[in-house]
Amino acid sequence: MARAPVSAVALVVVAAVLGLTACAPMSSPATRSVTTSTARAVPTAPADPRTFETEASVAASVVPEATTATPAVEACAGIERPAGVGGQPVSLELDGDALSEQVELVNVDNVWHVMVTFGAGGAATAEVRGANGLDAAVVLGQVDLDGDGGNEFALRVGGGAYTEQLAFLRVRDCAVVPLTFDDGTPAVFLVGGSFGGGESLVCSGGGQLERYSYWLLAAAGDETTTIYEGEYASYRIDGDVLTETATLGSRLTGADVASLVLLDCLGLSLS
User: What is the pTM of this model?
Assistant: First the structure.
């Protein structure tokens, strides 16, 4: 028998193999052999001890912020209250430490004294010159006359049927210091008036005070013909002294006088 060519035999063998493969039953998913491989965990590199930090070490490394302690306010020396008749203390803030002072007026043998008890401790007292009589002196309130952040305080130190007398004092170096005019007399202002004359006071808050005085020259039947002699004076606060800076005289009518504001001093009131 003649031999088949090699290429033909090879083709027959390949076909047979393919036929067997196609006829072989397929494995079901339940019986199919699945080969899995378990991945090997890659070891994590050990932490560098030079950079490893625990919560404790972090907390220990936090430096607390430095705090600045509020300096203690130095107390003034204590003094005894004058032995006399006093009124109800008034709470004011006078020395700039945000602590309230208690201001009390005490009458000793018909002489008035003002006593300031400081919020930080201690007290000071001064005689109130110009105040006479048991009912003369009254604490009116606090005002910052020169705008320096520290308050002066005003006292009613006298008065009459139509007028009140005002004095200004301040606290300095644990002492109560009255403001004076440049001649050394107490800075007392008259506020109020009547048909015959009077005075008014204006405080600007920048260290300037203005005083308007008027007195009757010629009375008439109406405001336009009633004539007053008027005087304007301005003052500047220099330390504890009120220095006069200008004086101006003028003639005023009754209408001019009627328009004057008797007291315009940073909210200060006579009541």
Answer: 0.70
Q: Where are the domains of the chain?
A: 85-265
Using DSSP, state whether 129 is helix, strand or coil: strand
Q: Which residue has the tokens 């504001």?
A: 261
Which of these, 262, 246, 268, lies nearest to 145 by C-alpha position? 268
- Cβ neighbourhood burial of 144 (10 Å; 0-12, 13-18, 19+): middle
User: What's the token pair of residue 257?
Assistant: 């006088």
- Beta carbons within 10 angstroms of residue 133's beta carbon: 11
Per-residue pLDDT tens over the stretch 192-243: 999 999 999 999 889 999 999 999 998 887 777 899 999 999 999 999 999 9
CA-to-CA distance for 115 and 105, rounded, in angstroms? 6
8 A C-beta contact, residue 142 and residue 268? no
Please answer whether residues 198 and 231 qualify as being in contact, where contact means their C-beta atoms are separated by less than 8 angstroms: no
